[in-house]
Amino acid sequence: QVQLVESGGGLVQAGGSLRLACAASGVTLDYYAIGWSRQAPGKAREGVSCFSGGDGRSYYADSVKGRATIAVDNVKNTVYLLVNNLKPEDTAVYYCAAADLANWSPSFWYVGMAYWGKGTPVTVSS
User: Fold this and answer.
1) Which of 51, 59, 66, 88 is most enclosed, with most CB atoms within 10 A?
2) Taking Cα atoms as reference points, which of 47, 29, 37 lies closest to residue 100?
3) Please, what are the averages of pLDDT over each run of 10 residues along the chain (126 residues)?
């Protein structure tokens, strides 16, 4: 049974940094794509970043490119998202998500996630 548990959300001032963690169980990260999506109030969910366990490639949304880094700790089976220079528009609930590589396409890395955590809220104050 796949379980994804997020942590690290909270209230941060604009310009600050945040590190989110996703503890994964029931998955072997080498065989999964795992990453982060977010949903701001009144907006659709959007992909933020994804890591492909197959080839180690990372993917980022344009909105966070250059400010975000995704990292995987295979020993702890945990995925991290570090976001620097936070902006008020980064305010959202951040969700960890994963997909079996056999059912995931790097061309559309932000869709097709089969497993989701419950989310952790992030609020960036201006």
Assistant:
1) 51
2) 29
3) 96 97 94 96 95 94 97 95 98 97 88 94 97
